[in-house]
């Protein structure tokens, strides 16, 4: 049995690295973004990618879809996009016998990987169409609930610069995202590599390396990793440190934060920590695994107060302070 | 499934954690020990240095340090006999061995009795952690560390030993014999004087012991007061003021005997004049006149011996002269007078044996009187010594008061010494110190002061102890209040004046104008959301008046 578990871990790591290597054929740099995206996929989560235009957000998502043998849909969110355009709607359908019946026409959400491009350009009504799908993995139209085929993985992008004509995601919507990943400008060396790869006649293509069953098996393995109570306590303390006005709150939290991370944030820390532990060949979650998940898991789950907004405080800054000042448990 | 702690892997992990825990405890013990040793040596060093500089009650300090050391030792023992903390040891191993919480997690899994859905994973994790623990070199992972503080302790110990070889006679900061505190401690010279006084009083007490009852002995009262004062000084329970008061009362007790001595002296003169008329008692009268009572007693015994050969008119004449001499009614010479009267009566009845016996008794009475006069002489010497000691202590106290006044004046003037900071001139102090305690007119008129009791045998009347500086100051304050009540300044005026003076010393450049303060307060309070800052800035730029207009 022990050998079997170690084989599972070995296979998990090997498959993950294979996917990563295949994506890296197309995507230069952005190792943390790729890791975060894959960890979210394996932890049954969704990812919100934030970055300025032209740095490869959509390319990363489409490449991830390429290396995974899964259905892929893309929705370009615009202000006139309606919920029915995402989830589908009942349309009049004529049967072979000439009878006209109402039949449900599936929308693009019925897929495995959904790219919600520029999600903040759609109205809140349309954005909320994703809520049930992201959390419950189902879509309700009228009185009928349609289950989505696992894995269902939403990759949303948004542009932080052009704020006019956009609809910032509400907190409830943000909380549905497992990670919020920030894509920054590439380094000069990476820029050279990007030029070399994309300005030639043939651009590199990623091969499909994982199918649906393999991904589901990897998800199951990731959930098996045990976590000791002291480490879990550490994750809880990190989360509680984001709650203003509580005994565990950090000083910066009390000053700049209006609402802290929800228990879903703690779940993200633990599950992400499990995947990270497996990727590092460990059979247990360490405090370091939890720490490595802190920024992408909680940065979008904290709501700043007026002073925090006025001072342009970044939630990453608060989380780094919490990470620094929260001691690891002794036992 | 059985708990992982009972498995061989669990045993391996537990054994390693126990060894790590032992090393951690040893290091912690050494750490605590180094702190304790440093604190103890530091305290001893501080006591040593302070005792070299200032007079402090060292035995009390040492007992406090000893108690603290005992308490700390108890804490160390308590910290070592607690239960093992293997979880803490696992944390130490994970941190130092860069094991990413492997042992910490394994130890927690081992302690869980309930089977988990992830039991196979947990068992695998514990097995892998056991392999990791088996590879650990505990001595290298948690080496025994000698704290650097021990070097500091060694240095302090060497310094302490070195200071023990420094020969010092008393505290360095004694300010020429003036003690700084008010604990009633005497200088070496004063202690020597005190011992001499006590010796004199004891000797006087011994001389009086055979003649006077204990409760009537003046020297016994003085001795009791002196011994009590010395005991309180040694126990640090008496201030210098109290000691001075005790000395004055003891001196008064000693001086009371001078009145009796003066009366006795006068009676002896009268007795001598009565005896001088007799040729047989001429030498005796001369000895009495010169107050040599021992010689007089010897001559009285010789007179008693000569009665054997005396007959007839000689005996009758001597009896009449003795009868005349025995007419005195001095109470202190009652024994002598009675013996002389018996001798005269016996000689008148020609009972020479009885007369001899009576004269022998008269000689013994003279010897007793001689001893009492010697005792009083010693008490007078002791009184003189007391007077000198009091003057020494008062000068010492005066110097300390002047020093404190000088320091207060320097503080009030911002650290700059003022002229006349020695507020009371020395001649004024001498005058006040010599004044009568109860308002003696002679002393208030500036008469001779301070030596009135120095020579009571010389016939001068005792003027009492000198007025202390505090009493003199209080009297001056009362005089001032009585003479100029309307000039009492209003406390509010004093406050306002002090406030004005203080304000004038503040530099102008440090004063913040009210308008600038208001601007700063407004900027500090009003936060403009960042998204509106550019808008606000553009608005104010737009409404800014043009320079050309």
Secondary-structure map:
The complex is a heterodimer of chains A (331) and B (549).
Chain A: H1 2-26, H2 31-42, E1 47-50, H3 57-67, E2 68-69, E3 72-76, H4 83-87, E4 88-94, E5 100-106, E6 113-117, H5 124-127, H6 129-136, E7 138-141, E8 144-147, E9 153-158, H7 171-175, E10 179-182, H8 188-198, E11 210-211, H9 212-224, H10 229-240, H11 251-256, E12 257-259, H12 263-279, H13 287-298, E13 303-304, H14 306-310, H15 315-325
Parallel strand pairs in A: 1-9, 1-10, 2-11, 3-6, 6-9
Antiparallel strand pairs in A: 4-5, 7-8, 12-13
Helix pairs in contact in A: 1-2, 1-3, 10-12, 10-13, 12-13, 13-15
Chain B: H1 8-53, H2 58-80, H3 86-97, H4 102-110, H5 119-135, H6 138-141, H7 149-164, H8 188-209, H9 218-234, H10 240-275, H11 282-289, H12 293-306, H13 312-325, H14 334-348, H15 352-412, H16 426-434, H17 441-444, H18 469-483, H19 491-504, H20 514-525, H21 530-542
Shape of chain B: elongated
Model regions low in confidence, pLDDT < 50 over at least 5 residues of chain A: none
Specify the CATH homologous superfamily of the largest domain in chain A: P-loop containing nucleotide triphosphate hydrolases
**In percent, how much strand structure appears in the residues of chain B?**
under 5%
The N- and C-terminal alpha carbons of chain B lie at a distance of: 93 Å
Q: Return the average pLDDT of chain B rounded to an integer.
A: 72
The coarse overall form of chain A would be globular
CATH uppermost class of the largest domain in chain A? Alpha Beta
Indicate the radius of gyration of chain B in whole angstroms. 46 Å
Structural class of chain B: mainly alpha
CATH topology label of the largest domain in chain A: Rossmann fold
- By secondary-structure content and strand pairing, the structural class of chain A works out as alpha/beta
Distance between the termini of chain A: 28 Å
């Amino acid at each position: 049995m022990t050998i079997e578990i170690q084989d599972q871990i070995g296979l998990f790591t090997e498959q993950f690295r294979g996917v990563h290597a295949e994506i890296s054929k197309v995507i230069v740099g952005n190792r943390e973004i790729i890791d975060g995206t894959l960890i979210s996929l394996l932890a049954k989560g969704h990812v919100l990618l934030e970055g300025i235009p032209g740095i490869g957000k959509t390319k990363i998502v489409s490449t991830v879809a390429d290396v995974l043998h899964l259905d892929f849909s893309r929705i370009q969110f615009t202000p006139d996009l309606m919920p029915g355009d995402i989830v589908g709607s009942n349309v009049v359908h004529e049967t072979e016998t000439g009878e006209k019946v109402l039949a449900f026409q599936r929308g693009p959400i019925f897929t495995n990987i959904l790219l919600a491009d520029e999600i903040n350009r759609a109205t809140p009504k349309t954005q909320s169409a994703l809520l049930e799908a992201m959390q419950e993995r189902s879509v309700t139209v009228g009185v009928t609930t349609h289950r989505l085929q696992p894995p269902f993985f939403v990759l949303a992008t948004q542009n932080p610069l052009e704020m006019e004509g956009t609809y910032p995601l509400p907190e409830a919507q943000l909380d549905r995202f497992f990670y919020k990943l920030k894509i920054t400008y590439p380094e000069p060396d990476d820029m050279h590599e990007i030029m070399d790869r994309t300005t030639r006649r043939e651009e590199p293509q990623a091969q499909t390396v994982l199918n649906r069953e393999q991904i589901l098996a990897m998800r199951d393995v990731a959930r098996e990793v045990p976590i000791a109570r002291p480490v879990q306590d550490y994750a809880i303390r990190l989360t509680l440190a984001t709650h203003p006005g509580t005994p565990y709150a950090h000083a910066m939290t009390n000053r700049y934060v209006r609402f802290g991370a929800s228990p879903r944030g703690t779940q993200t820390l633990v599950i992400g920590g499990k995947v990270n532990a497996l990727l590092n060949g460990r059979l247990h979650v360490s405090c370091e695994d939890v720490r490595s998940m802190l920024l992408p898991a909680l940065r979008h789950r904290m709501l700043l107060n007026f002073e925090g907004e006025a001072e342009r405080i970044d939630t990453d800054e608060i989380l780094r302070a919490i990470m620094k000042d929260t001691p690891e448990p002794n036992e | 499934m059985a708990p992982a702690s009972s498995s061989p892997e669990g045993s391996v992990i537990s054994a390693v954690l126990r060894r790590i825990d032992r090393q951690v405890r040893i290091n912690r013990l050494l750490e605590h020990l180094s702190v304790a040793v440093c604190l103890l040596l530091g305290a001893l060093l501080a006591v040593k240095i302070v005792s070299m500089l200032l007079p402090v009650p060292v035995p009390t300090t040492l007992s406090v340090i000893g108690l603290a050391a005992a308490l700390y030792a108890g804490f160390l023992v308590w910290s070592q006999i607690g239960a093992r903390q293997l979880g803490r040891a696992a944390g130490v191993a994970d941190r130092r061995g860069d094991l990413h919480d492997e042992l910490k997690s394994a130890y927690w899994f081992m302690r869980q009795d309930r089977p988990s859905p992830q039991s196979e994973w947990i068992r695998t994790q514990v097995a892998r952690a056991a392999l990791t623990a088996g590879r650990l070199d505990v001595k290298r992972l948690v080496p025994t560390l000698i704290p650097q503080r021990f070097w500091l302790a060694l240095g302090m110990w060497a310094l302490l030993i070195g200071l023990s070889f420094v020969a010092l006679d008393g505290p360095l900061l004694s300010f020429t014999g003036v003690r700084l505190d008010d604990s009633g401690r005497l200088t070496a010279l004063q202690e020597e004087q005190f011992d001499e006084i006590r010796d004199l009083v004891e000797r006087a007490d011994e001389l009086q012991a055979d003649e006077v009852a204990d409760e009537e002995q003046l020297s016994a009262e003085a001795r009791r007061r002196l011994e009590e004062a010395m005991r309180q000084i040694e126990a640090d329970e008496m201030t210098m003021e109290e000691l001075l008061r005790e000395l004055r009362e003891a001196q008064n007790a000693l001086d009371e005997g001078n009145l009796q001595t003066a009366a006795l002296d006068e009676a002896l003169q009268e007795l001598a004049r009565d005896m001088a008329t007799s040729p047989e008692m001429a030498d005796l009268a001369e000895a009495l006149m010169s107050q040599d009572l021992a010689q007089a007693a010897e001559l009285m015994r010789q007179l008693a011996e000569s009665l054997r050969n005396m007959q007839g008119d000689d005996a009758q004449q001597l009896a009449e002269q003795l009868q005349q001499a025995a007419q005195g009614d001095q109470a202190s010479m009652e024994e002598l007078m009675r013996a002389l009267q018996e001798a005269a009566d016996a000689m008148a009845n020609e009972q020479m044996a009885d007369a001899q016996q009576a004269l022998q008794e008269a000689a013994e009475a003279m010897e007793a009187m001689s001893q009492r006069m010697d005792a009083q002489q010693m008490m007078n010497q002791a009184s003189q010594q007391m007077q000198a000691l009091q003057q020494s202590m008062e000068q010492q106290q005066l110097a300390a008061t002047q020093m404190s006044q000088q320091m207060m004046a320097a503080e009030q003037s911002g650290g700059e010494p003022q002229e006349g900071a020695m507020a009371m001139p020395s001649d004024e102090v001498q005058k006040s110190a010599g004044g009568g305690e109860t308002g003696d007119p002679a002393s208030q008129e500036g008469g001779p002061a301070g030596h009135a009791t120095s020579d009571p045998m010389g016939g001068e009347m005792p003027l009492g102890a000198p007025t202390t500086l505090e009493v003199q100051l209080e009297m001056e304050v009362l005089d001032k209040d009585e003479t100029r009540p309307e000039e009492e300044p209003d406390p509010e005026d004093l406050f306002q004046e002090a406030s004005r003076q203080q304000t004038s010393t503040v530099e102008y450049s440090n004063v913040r104008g009210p308008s600038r303060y208001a601007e700063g307060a407004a900027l500090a309070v009003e936060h403009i959301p960042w998204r509106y800052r550019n808008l606000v800035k553009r608005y104010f730029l737009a409404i800014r008046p043009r320079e050309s207009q």
